[in-house]
TrEMBL record:
It comes from the Bacteria. This is Histidinol dehydrogenase. Its EC number is 1.1.1.23. The gene is hisD. It is an enzyme of class 1 (oxidoreductase). Zn(2+) binds at residues 251, 254, 353, 412. HAMAP family: HisD (MF_01024). One of its GO terms (cellular component) is cytosol. Catalyzes the sequential NAD-dependent oxidations of L-histidinol to L-histidinaldehyde and then to L-histidine.
Amino acid sequence: MRIEQVTEKVSLKRSIDQGTALQQQAVEEIIAAVRREGDAAVRSLTEKFDGASLENFRVTKEELEAAYAQIDDEVLAALREAMGNIRRFHERQKRESWFATEADGTILGQKITPLDSVGVYVPGGTAAYPSSILMNVIPAQVAGVEKIVMVSPPGKDGTLPAGVLVAANELEVEYIYKMGGAQAVAALAYGTETVPAVDKIVGPGNIYVALAKRAVYGHVDIDMIAGPSEIVVLADEGANPSYIAADLLSQAEHDRLSSAVLVTPSTQLAEAVSLEVEQQLATLPRKEIAEASIRDYGVIYVTQDLDEAVDVVNELAPEHLEVLTEEPMALLGQIRHAGAIFLGPYSSEPVGDYFAGPNHVLPTNGTARFSSPLNVDDFTKKSSIISYSKTALMNNAHKIAALARLEGLEAHARAVEIRVPGTIRGQF
């Protein structure tokens, strides 16, 4: 693994794929086809891109029941426990509507309303992601979303992985469809004969999914444009190099474009981790993917001291940050930019990916500087409540009218003054 001495401002080498002109054109054509032809277009595109010939997209009750036969009881128990942990965490995020009454009778407030419907995209391809279902569906349910529509690309045999089906069924997701790619995003955004249109689309996918989500944004809301997974480990000389190497590889195996980074003031630790990464790579089932990730997007930054290491971390603003120092909690106040922060040697990143409770849908590509993990608020909308009393209007009408006229909006001023008896400007 490459080791670099930090001498100036650093930047994390990331794969930020904005899509080629041809990919964007292809996505636009797919969306147009789905809007024009509905299910017929989705059916044709599913056969073209996924190799699956499907008459019906919706998962049947029989398919859901059959999936349980393929899931080990111990795995099912772990899945259910993870669901409970994730639900309890997100229930703490839920906010209520509020109202405040002023002495003059004015009532101001905020009404929080769940979205009517949400589409959840669950990626397929090189792996199955039941955890993605939990992290996207549960906060929507906690928020109070009534209709959740799930889509996921089928295999060539026209089926979805058993773990995906079981996770969806455990959460009682009613609408599950076997479709993926830009065509699935278009179906969620605009609806087809069988797929209901939704108000928001969440969940990660490949570049075609990302481009499609960007294209339909404005007609519907989206969560984010997610990039490849990334991890930064902040460690001092006392950290265990084996732990660090394992954690770096846990992200590297996601994707060839994933990035794995160690930031440390210890040259000795840097060298030990580099060696350990090579040794652990040798036995990984997804060695080819992880090896490409480490080669192209992996790096170890050696800093002068721990304070500079923290500065580097804040500059990188990583999706996942592990703090493996002697006193990790002491550094928490200095860390300003990270999607999720894992403190201490027993808080390995997969603990958060699967089980602890916090959401694993996190800002990537440095967007942790200004955005947050997926949460319950993402599935609600807020309405401002304004109830002015007569006394309040009489006391403030001249101020409001003055501000309106400052902007040259006479009708605004008159709309207030017409309610005030004896106001000359209001008599017309």
